[in-house]
């Protein structure tokens, strides 16, 4: 269980995290989502007592991280890909960390096997690929067999096999009742791994909700209609809360009406439909909509007609 | 990675009861720092380089002395110091232990390892104390042995020209022993500066700026009346008194000078501790 209360971190003039409150519950994978620079890593470092909050507080299992007698048994953390001395072997790195808490040598061997680094355990970490570095980081996180795991962008640099492995590992660790808090800027990854989401943008909380709810909340539920009588159908569909746009000849994007309703109207007026497709927003689209204003670095995106009208979503509901 | 699916952490097994008895202690952090120290090639190589350079200089000076001494004027012969001359390797030795001390800390900051270290021991200060202790013991043992090896090597060479000194002659034991002490404290100053500055280049530059450049600037002061009031108390001038056989005014007495040098290191270490506790990692 991780509880953040009004967590705020300022670096000089710049506010990295602003009045952030959330709870990460045990037993599920909680995704920590936000664009680059949203304050995810800063928040995670504050949880681990590496950065001191400007104001507010965060506890892990009821206590500030630094007050635990054996932090490695409470929280395992993968912070950056390489919080590892490049001159030391993977095995010795883990051995040195284990020694701080009196974790026995056999556990070091166990985690090395668990993450599949046996073949390179006696090689210096400086020669490791990004993926091997991530695995070693995860081995360090699991070393103390902790109840809470905090992982910052764990799939970064992993190949598809590694990503699948992480996904399954996180789910199985959560099913054992552990608290799993995993950050990512990749929505698609979170859609597959996480059950619960904490979304931040520019250091502020945007959403604290289940994945399904997050999508439905952002979803404007448009329906794609393909018909030879586009102009006529467009007139028939028109109404106060209905938006119809068209970017391709013979194709309409309808918002504000269900596909059932559109189909019925078409049938009543004997209009032929070639296609009638309701479109649910993906997590990625939901994320883009909700964090649209919160992206720190953005290149101007040329607007296309199809995505012109999606600004009526309530943020911070 | 299919092995993971069959591992004890598969979803079908009931939640295991996890009992953890371990906790973080100063002793365990010292053990951890010792493992860290001995598992880095760079720590071994800086020590080997320091020891090698000191022994090489001792041999070089004493062998050169042996061949040239008989041809020197009586006045030059009087200037020969059979204890201090072969000890000049200390200037190379301090480069090696200084860099080693700095790297004990900055090696972790430049690689990111420090975050793993401080996450494992979030009280932080025990990590600094453990690093300082491991460094002190290793550097002192190695440098003291090297100092005695250099002394006896040189004296055995000098015995053929009959200018050798005995370890029991006045001040000699203190000087030889003092070389190991001086070098250890140089390295500790490096550890402290590493923790304060956190970048390898910056910390090494500051350390040798203090040890080597300050005394040179002090020479300028010797042109004024300020020199005698400041120069004896500069860190390296004070610290090196413990290796000197003779004391001339206004230099500090051997142990007083060394105590002042230790004092500088303690102040630097205290500043390092405050900053380590206060700053974000």
What's this model, at a glance?
The complex is a heterodimer of chains A (317) and B (281). Chain A has 317 residues and is of the alpha/beta class. In chain A, 33% of the residues lie in helices and 25% in strands.
Output the structural class of chain B: mainly alpha
Topology order of chain A in helix (H) and strand (E) letters: EEEHEHEHHHEHEHEEHEHEEHEH
Low-pLDDT stretches of chain B are 1-15
> What does the largest sheet of chain B look like?
none
Largest interface chains and counts? A-B, 54 and 47 residues
Number of E strands of chain A = 13
Q: What is the count of helical runs of chain A?
A: 11
Proportion of residues in helical segments of chain A: 25-40%
User: Could you estimate the helical fraction of the residues of chain B in percent?
Assistant: 55-70%
- Helices of chain B, by number, come to 11
* Biggest β-sheet: strands ordered side by side in the sheet of chain A: 5-6-7-3-8-9
Unreliable runs of chain A, pLDDT <50, ≥5 residues?
Answer: 303-317
* Residues in β-strands, percent of chain B: under 5%
Distance between the termini of chain B: 34 Å
Order of helices and strands of chain B: HHHHHHHHHHH
Radius of gyration of chain B: 24 Å
Using only C-alpha atoms, the radius of gyration of chain A works out to 24 Å
The backbone outline of chain A, from C-alpha atoms, is: elongated
Secondary structure layout:
The complex is a heterodimer of chains A (317) and B (281).
Chain A: E1 2-11, E2 14-24, E3 29-33, H1 40-47, E4 55-60, H2 71-74, E5 75-78, H3 90-101, H4 105-114, H5 130-142, E6 148-152, H6 160-175, E7 179-184, H7 187-193, E8 196-201, E9 204-210, H8 211-218, E10 222-226, H9 230-237, E11 243-245, E12 251-255, H10 259-268, E13 275-279, H11 283-291
Parallel strand pairs in A: 3-7, 3-8, 5-6, 6-7
Antiparallel strand pairs in A: 1-2, 1-4, 8-9, 10-12, 10-13, 11-12
Chain B: H1 26-38, H2 41-68, H3 74-79, H4 90-111, H5 113-120, H6 125-158, H7 172-197, H8 200-221, H9 227-230, H10 235-239, H11 254-278
Helix pairs in contact in B: 1-6, 2-4, 2-6, 4-5, 4-6, 4-7, 4-8, 6-7, 7-8, 7-11
